[in-house]
Amino acid sequence: MTRRLPAFAALAVALAACETGSERKPAVSVRLRTTPPDTIAPGDSLHMSAWVINREREPLTLEFESQCQVEMFVVTEDKSIVHPPGGGSTCISTPTAMKVPANDSVRVDDAWLAAAPQPGEYAAYAVVSSHHVVRGERRDHKLSHRSNIVTFHVARPPS
């Protein structure tokens, strides 16, 4: 179950303001799903799957300046990043590419081990890093953009 929480309203508004680098619709979008969808127990993992979706009639190649093509984040109610560990990116600067077939998607998976979290509400989202969309000889630069926000709960440990 996906629930919207007032504590994440400001985060949602701020992330929704992320630009796509163009006035027209972005060539790709990203959608996140989590398993389990609503509650995890301490010591369990939240599995995240992000789909990079190409709604165009032509296949697209996305070129990135680092190995971080799609990054997934887990944040607490106070917006502290708990995943990736250390609160940020650990990308290696090396060019990479992702090919997304026409009218199709590419799935990227990640997981967060809730080893010792505080019980409460959390949010997860994915970000497609800044990239170039290659169409024949054209390379259009696109700023990073994020997925939907999925909220979930970390249960209290059993007494």
Describe, in plain words, how this protein is organized in 3D:
Strands 2, 5, 6, 9, 12 and 13 form a six-stranded mixed beta sheet that branches. This protein has a four-stranded antiparallel beta sheet with strand order 7-4-10-11, with no helix packed on it. Strands 1-3-8 form a three-stranded antiparallel beta sheet, with no helix packed on it. The chain starts with 8 loop residues before the first helix and ends in a 5-residue tail after the last strand. A hairpin with a 4-residue loop joins strand 5 (70-76) and strand 6 (81-83). With 159 residues, it is mostly beta strands. The longest helix has 8 residues, at 9-16. The protein is built from one helix and 13 strands.
Give the tags:
159 residues; mainly beta; 6-stranded mixed beta sheet; 4-stranded antiparallel beta sheet; 1 helix; 13 strands; disordered N terminus
